[in-house]
Specification:
Largest sheet of chain B: 7 strands, mixed
Helix content of chain A: under 10%
Distance between the termini of chain B: 37 Å
Oligomer: heterodimer
Helix content of chain B: under 10%
Shape of chain A: globular
Distance between the termini of chain A: 41 Å
Radius of gyration of chain B: 13 Å
Shape of chain B: globular
Structural class of chain A: mainly beta
Largest sheet of chain A: 6 strands, mixed
Radius of gyration of chain A: 14 Å
Number of helices of chain A: 0
Number of strands of chain B: 11
């Protein structure tokens, strides 16, 4: 069965600190996709990244970086030098190639304190 | 390029009534998915439409239905509203269907059932 677990419900850090959001997933498929989305107070989900199961290369985009490890079924997200604007709920998600729906984790609410 | 537009943004309905929510996808996108977001259950997949056909359906009662028009705009309908239907309903559009497709979300319709 598909499942995404974000064990951290809520995290608070002081601005400029680095913060890592954890994500663990379960799937029986060998081909799948992983996502991270950001949900600011406005409500819409903002796409951050997509990785397929065959690409374990870590990715960096500005202050954001992602660490994908198939051996531990994890896809963690790190924000370096956090800023107040990073405050939001972050969702990790999974999609299998044969299925159109996206399975979301429960989300991690991130507070960046000035 | 205009994003995904959902109307209305906010809605208050009485138990037993029915409601119709609308979603206009990004121009050129033919796939529209609907998700329900509640504090308790998180983000849950409702259904997906592609080229006016329902391709996938989540685990929701038959009171929840949807459709897609030839211009890719989609509506979802909830009949005989219950208090538990209070939620943020998010629509996502993609240029194609199939797992792993990058989905773009609207700001959602916040439905309150009283």
């Amino acid at each position: 069965a598909q499942k995404v677990t974000q064990a951290q419900t809520e995290i608070s850090v002081v601005e400029k600190e680095d913060v890592t959001l954890d994500c663990v997933y379960e799937t029986r498929d060998t081909t799948y996709y992983l996502f991270w989305y950001k949900q600011p107070p406005s409500g819409e989900l903002v796409f951050l990244i997509r990785r397929n199961s065959f690409d374990e290369q870590n990715e960096i985009s500005g202050r954001y970086s992602w660490n994908f490890q198939k051996s531990t079924s994890s896809f963690n997200f790190t924000i370096t030098a956090s800023q107040v604007v990073d405050s939001a709920v972050y969702f990790c998600a999974l999609s299998e190639v044969r299925d159109d729906k996206i399975i979301f984790g429960k989300g991690t609410r991130l507070h960046i304190l000035p | 390029k205009a994003g995904v537009t959902q109307t209305p943004r906010y809605l208050i309905k009485t138990r037993g009534q029915q409601v119709t929510l609308s979603c206009s996808p990004i121009s050129g996108h033919r796939s529209v998915s609907w998700y329900q977001q509640t504090p308790g259950q998180g983000l849950q997949f409702l259904f997906e439409y592609f080229s006016e056909t329902q391709r996938n359906k989540g685990n929701f009662p038959g009171r929840f239905s949807g459709r897609q028009f030839s211009n890719s705009r989609s509506e979802m309908n909830v009949s005989t509203l219950e208090l538990g239907d209070s939620a943020l309903y998010l629509c996502a559009s993609s240029h194609r269907t199939g797992g792993g497709t990058e989905a773009f979300f609207g700001q959602g319709t916040r439905l309150t059932v009283v």
